[in-house]
Every structure is written in structure tokens, then in C-alpha cells.
Write a structure and sequence with these properties.
single chain, two-stranded antiparallel ribbon, 72% helix
Length: 151
């Protein structure tokens, strides 16, 4: 029982970390969009509004975010399976937290079917917000099982 209690504590701490990263991501996107006068929703039409240097900075920020999440997985997970599960757990929490905080700040997205520009790396990805939210929820559920039961 003690072993699973430790795993639950790890999941709680990972949730705090990933939620904090979600807020940080939201604040960066909010500042960026505000400064550039962009609409809250990113779609392919906003790409020309990015100054070329800022687009590169944004792509590198996205890569840095993934590296940070992956590094946590490497540090916390004991087996390869658990390292991947920790990464996926944090990624899922981070992604959902991003949209929750964005909604709390400016009441956007207005629907789970709002189109958003999800990533710029390796190329621009757009989809209704429900797509990353559902994928993130699945990642959280499966990775929680792996972390608690399989390790």
C-alpha cells in the first residue's frame, strides 16, 4: 500500500508541475497575442502576423516545452514505460490546463469545437480544441494506470 501511496503523491506533484506549466504557456500566448494584436484563436490566418524572428522564437519555445516535459519523465520514471507514462501524463495535464486558464482569462475558447493552431513544429497543426483535449484525457488515464499499476 505504501508503494501506491508514493505513486499517488508523485502524480499529485506532477499535476502541480504540469498545471503550472499550463498557466505559464497561457500567459505567454496571452501576452504574445495581445502585443501583436492577434485574435485569441490561432489559425493558419494568423501566421502572416508573426514577424519572422518571433515565429522562430515561438517554434523554439514549443520545442523547449516538450524537452522540459520529457526531462521530467526521464527524472521521475523508473522504467522506460514509466518514463514515457510520466511524460504523457504531464503533457496531458499541461495541454488541458492551457485551455482552462485561457478560458479563465478571456473566456476563450467559446466551444470545444473552436479551431486552434495547436503547434508550429514541425509544421502548423490546426484542429478543433476537442481533439487535443480528448487525446490529453486519454493520455492522462492510460499513463495514470501505467504509473500506479505497472510502473
Amino acid at each position: 500500500m505504501k508503494h501506491n501511496e508514493n505513486k499517488v503523491l508523485v502524480l499529485v506533484l506532477l499535476t502541480v508541475f504540469a498545471t503550472s506549466m499550463g498557466y505559464l504557456e497561457t500567459s505567454v500566448a496571452y501576452y504574445e497575442r495581445s502585443i501583436l494584436g492577434m485574435p485569441p484563436s490561432y489559425n493558419l490566418n494568423v501566421l502572416p502576423l508573426f514577424p519572422p524572428k518571433l515565429l522562430i522564437v515561438e517554434q523554439l519555445r514549443e520545442i523547449a516545452t516538450i524537452i522540459m516535459l520529457f526531462t521530467v519523465g526521464l527524472l521521475v520514471g523508473k522504467s522506460i514505460r514509466e518514463k514515457i507514462a510520466v511524460f504523457l501524463f504531464c503533457f496531458g495535464i499541461w495541454d488541458i490546463a492551457y485551455y482552462i486558464f485561457y478560458y479563465a482569462i478571456i473566456q476563450w475558447p467559446t466551444s470545444l469545437f473552436t479551431i486552434d493552431l495547436l503547434f508550429l513544429v514541425p509544421a502548423p497543426w490546426t484542429a478543433p480544441i476537442i481533439v487535443p483535449v480528448v487525446i490529453s484525457a486519454i493520455m492522462i488515464i492510460i499513463s495514470t494506470y501505467v504509473i500506479i499499476k505497472k510502473g
